[in-house]
Amino acid sequence: MEHEYSIPNLVLDETDKHILSILHEEGRISYTDLGKRVNLSRVAVQQRIQHLLDAGVIEKFTAVINPAKIGRHVSVFFNVEVEPQYLEETALKLEQEPAVTSLYHMTGPSKLHMHGIFANDQEMEEFLTKRLYTQKGVVSVDCQMLIKRYKSRTGMKL
């Protein structure tokens, strides 16, 4: 399981915030073009971004893929209640599932909140019956299918 590490009391100045804001909207922008927009040299921008990466402020650079464009049309949120002694084991297994896009331990009696994306209803049903219900310690599963996405987390705006 991934652990988060941070530098305590990291203070971002206005230039750091401006860099993060631009990267949030244009993650593929070159250091040179970014430098022009924040009035710094390419080298200075590169050093600041490396510092933000090292500090864990920027976790990673990635592409945001539209699931429907690659044949993944069924988006489902799951609330999974797990017996406390099996919570960690279940979470570690579920995080390895390719269909699972996010997985969180929530407040409440041993709750996992999970999102998955599937090609169709049959694939989702197979996930439920063969991959989720069979996990040791799973007590109950509540599913909600997404109808329309208005906004999703692709990073945090400052």
Task: Describe the model.
One of its GO terms (cellular component) is cytosol. One of its GO terms (molecular function) is sequence-specific DNA binding. The chain is an alpha+beta fold and 158 residues long. The chain contains five helices and four strands. A four-stranded antiparallel beta sheet has the order 2-3-1-4. It folds into two domains: 14-54, Orthogonal Bundle (Arc Repressor Mutant, subunit A), CATH 1.10.10; 67-145, Alpha-Beta Plaits, CATH 3.30.70. Helix 2 packs across helix 3. It has helices at residues 14-25, 31-38, 42-54, 87-94, 121-132; strands spanning 74-82, 100-106, 111-118, 138-145. 34% of the residues lie in helices and 20% in strands. It starts with 13 loop residues before the first helix and ends in a 13-residue tail after the last strand.
List keywords for this structure.
single chain; 158 residues; alpha+beta; Arc Repressor Mutant, subunit A; Alpha-Beta Plaits; 5 helices; 4 strands; 34% helix; disordered N terminus; WH_DNA-bd_sf; DNA-binding; transcription regulation; Dimeric_a/b-barrel; ArsR-like_HTH
